[in-house]
Design a protein that fits this description.
Order of helices and strands: EHHEEEH
Strand order of the largest sheet: 1-4-3-2
Shape: globular
Radius of gyration: 13 Å
Structural class: alpha+beta
Number of domains: 1
Distance between the termini: 24 Å
Largest sheet: 4 strands, mixed
Number of strands: 4
CATH topology: YaeB-like fold
């Protein structure tokens, strides 16, 4: 038991991230995904450590950054619910739309 689970589309986010990076460097792709899982493991005991993004959502989600990616998660859910893993340089408008689509 990991203490967290993924929205089905968040799992797809991870697959896309891995495939994109792996096209250039398999080791880097593995490292980024491993770092995402390590960050999630660290969140489980202290889920409130992330920051809020009221510019992206009014929901009580929190966000942490891992490499160039924002992980959006619901800190009050048990297990911790990962809503999305989004590249941090995407337009805030696009990020907000992704999050709205995953309510």
């Amino acid at each position: 038991m990991t203490g967290y689970d993924f929205h089905p589309e968040a799992r797809f986010d991870l697959d896309e991230i891995w495939e994109y990076i792996a096209a250039d460097n398999l080791d880097a792709a593995d490292l980024v995904i491993a770092d995402v899982f390590a960050a999630l493991d660290a969140l489980v005991p202290l889920p409130q450590q992330g920051h809020r993004r009221p510019d992206l959502t009014s929901r009580p989600l929190r966000f942490i950054r891992v490499h160039e990616y924002l992980i959006a998660y619901a800190p009050n859910e048990k297990p911790l619910w990962v809503v999305a893993v989004i590249h941090g340089r995407r337009s805030p408008r696009v990020m907000a739309a992704i999050l709205r689509g995953r309510e």
